[in-house]
Design a protein that fits this description.
globular; 3 helices; 26 strands; single chain; 4-stranded antiparallel sheet; Neuraminidase; mainly beta
Length: 324
């Protein structure tokens, strides 16, 4: 019996449906090249436990919280130091002014630096040269002094809305307007996949909020900025897509792979890259002293033109890479 063209076409369509998709993600590691590094603040002071980093796409400057040196450092996009200053806080026990341990920073459109410090439980706003302007506790922001929670991480969007991750009796992300007035509370503490335990890092991209959680599963959770839980991925087990200490998170838009979610894992000494569905595409780096390796990677930030920076809490350096 002869097979008609229609039957061939039918068989071809059936095969398309039953044969699994064998396409693979692009080879991201081969597209990454190292192109700059810094170990100090330009004044002879070596980096010591740099944590959060923030790249301001308006000014082209990278702001770094160097906790071990009690300093905030500003570099240009080529990691040339521009300015640095000590961060001072008021000791919660003695009331005295002491050097702080800045751990998270962001910069708004006015050039003001918003800082979270390990030694205090308030959020601080500084001018571009480090002069204190305002301080806010979580209780003040929420209008309830009985709420005991401390700022842990932050992110800022193009409209100067601030996303403040807080942990304690209350665990959530506070969305604040440019005047640091509360817009809404996103998420709540609890055991469900859509709920939170200990927020480590947060970033915003295209109206979506991505955050990492130290203990809750999934380890990465995605909300929209209206407060709706969208999805999550990765656990805290030993499987390759899982995360042990997801210390930093960033999102890039790639012409080859689309939306990419980059998570620094400070215990596994790698950066794990996921697609928008939460599938792990690849892991980049590994423990070591060489260029492209990390010693407890902490913060990660993208410039918008393919470059990205990685800070190393123990390696005491900042590397810049280019994703081609």
């Amino acid at each position: 019996m002869r097979t008609s063209r229609f039957q061939y076409l039918f068989l071809f369509l059936v095969l398309l449906l039953i044969i699994p998709d064998l396409s693979v993600a692009s080879d991201i590691p081969s597209r990454i090249t190292f192109d700059a590094i810094t170990f100090d603040d330009g004044m002879g002071i070596a980096l010591r436990s740099p944590r959060s980093i923030f790249f301001d796409r308006r000014s082209g400057e990278l702001t770094v919280a160097d906790a071990g040196n009690n300093r905030i450092i500003i570099y240009d996009r080529n990691l040339k130091p521009l300015f640095s200053f000590d961060h001072f806080v008021r000791d919660r026990y003695t009331g005295m002014i002491v050097k702080g341990e800045p751990k998270a920073v962001a910069v708004n459109s006015l050039g003001e630096i918003i800082v979270i410090d390990n030694l205090v439980e308030y959020l601080e706003v500084l001018d571009f040269r480090g002069t204190p302007l305002e301080k806010f506790t979580v209780g003040q922001i929420l209008g309830d002094s009985a709420i005991k929670a401390r700022p842990e991480c932050l992110a800022i969007d193009a409209a100067d809305n601030l996303y403040l991750g807080v942990t304690g009796k209350m665990t959530a992300v506070l969305m604040l307007d440019k005047n640091l007035k509360l817009i809404r509370v996103i998420g709540k503490k609890g055991p469900l996949p859509s709920e939170l335990n200990t927020i480590l890092a947060v970033t915003e991209s295209e109206g979506l909020l991505y955050l990492t959680d130290l203990y809750s599963v999934p380890a990465v959770k995605i909300f929209d900025t209206s407060g709706n839980y969208i999805s999550g991925f990765a656990g805290h087990d030993i499987e390759e897509p899982d995360l042990s200490l997801p210390s930093g998170i960033a999102v890039s838009e790639d012409s080859i792979d689309g939306t990419l979610i980059w998570v620094t894992d400070a215990l596994r000494q790698v950066i794990k890259v996921y697609n928008s569905d939460g599938d792990m595409l690849v892991q980049v780096g590994g423990f070591g002293y060489k260029l492209g390796e990390y010693q407890y990677p902490a913060g990660i930030a993208f410039t918008g033109d393919g470059h990205f920076f990685v800070s190393e809490k123990v390696g005491n350096r900042i590397q810049r890479f280019l994703l081609k």
